[in-house]
Amino acid sequence: MHVNELETPSVLIDLDIMTRNIEAMQERCDGLGLAFRPHIKTHKIPDIARMQLAAGAVGIACQKVSEAEIFAADGFEDIQIPYNIIGEKKTARLMDLAIYNRMSVSADSQTTVDGLSAAAKMAGVPLRVLVELESEQHRAGAPVERAVALAEKIAADENLHFAGLLIYPSDASIRPALQETISHIDALGIGVEVVSGGGTGAALHAHEVPELTELRVGTYVFNDMTTVWRGWNVPENCAMTVRTTVVSRPADERAILDSGSKTLSSDVYEGRYGYIVEYPDAKIYRLNEEHGYVDLTACERRPQVGEIVHVIPVHTCVVTNLHERLFGVRDGEIEVEWAVAARGKVW
Ligand SMILES: Cc1ncc(COP(=O)(O)O)c(C=O)c1O
């Protein structure tokens, strides 16, 4: 089917750009001697993860147990969840996966470690646990002293296996804390098998953190305007666009798109909700659920009602999560239609 026959709004994936992105990141990791573990949060589609594995990835990362369940059921065996899994029901489901698969998770507190240990004991299978080290993002993650104490506890726990350290994002600024943590753990006679870093931006600086053994990257597969506006990318590397119709021109300087927050998500970057490929000077400045407001003041040429335009979203991962299907396009033809298998999985 030709792409012109598609309803709008629809999410398109340029297959040539996506393939190039997959190859480039794998080459980068291979060149640095790093294992590559794509994070599936960006596409949530097993077929795309299979392309990433075929290019050389060692396994995948998922953010939720329910995402891991979808991918494990589809044949993926090496799955890392870089998240504190808390609560008996979730840890029991995690251990159901760990019986048949190489699962690993992160922890940054004794509470998380205790819950994982109890679940692993119940299942009778040891679980691989990485300690998350706090980064300059100050999200989850333990400071150095606690990270070392947790590593010691995990290593001494007969139900758990201390698998190493995990960081997000793994910018070069983390290096002093990382080195300190590794040297303390070494001094305890415990091996740090894996140092897993992550982030599309951090991947550009991975060579500045030679302690890393693995990279977890997600957004790179499609890229988005956040990666462009932060200077990590160019629009030509963005595989995802939302094909959308101009449904109204209420004023000379304003257009309305049939893509609102239900389609593009509410993620915003410095007052912008996306970038219109055909009208680079236009500004998507507000979204309602089904309306995208576009300021055309800076545009010499302006779109007509009924015209189709393509929007590169601000944050690709959340756009994927909003849609039932993505359309893979090459030379104007839809080559593949993917169901977003792990969409909406929050448990
Ligand atoms: C823990 C963790 N690892 C890896 C990633 C992938 O980062 P990016 O999408 O920037 O490549 C994320 C993204 O949110 C994350 O939260």
What's the layout of helices and strands?
Layout: E1 10-14, H1 15-32, E2 35-38, H2 46-54, E3 60-61, H3 65-73, E4 78-81, H4 88-100, E5 102-107, H5 110-123, E6 127-132, H6 144-156, E7 160-166, H7 175-187, E8 194-198, H8 200-203, E9 214-217, H9 225-229, E10 240-251, E11 254-257, H10 261-264, E12 274-276, E13 283-287, E14 292-295, E15 308-313, H11 316-322, E16 325-330, E17 333-339
Parallel strand pairs: 1-16, 2-9, 3-4, 4-5, 5-6, 6-7, 7-8, 8-9
Antiparallel strand pairs: 1-10, 10-11, 10-15, 11-14, 12-15, 13-14, 16-17
Pyridoxal-5'-phosphate (PLP) binds at residues 39, 42, 82, 168, 198-200, 216-220.
Could you explain the architecture of this structure?
With 347 residues, the chain is α/β, with parallel strands linked by helices. The protein has two domains: 3-10 and 226-339, D-serine dehydratase-like domain (Lyase, Ornithine Decarboxylase, Chain A, domain 1), CATH 2.40.37.20; 15-221, Alanine racemase (TIM Barrel, Alpha-Beta Barrel). The chain has eleven helices and 17 strands. Strands 1, 10, 11, 12, 13, 14, 15, 16 and 17 form a nine-stranded mixed β-sheet that branches. An eight-stranded parallel β-sheet has the order 2-9-8-7-6-5-4-3. The longest helix has 18 residues, at 15-32.
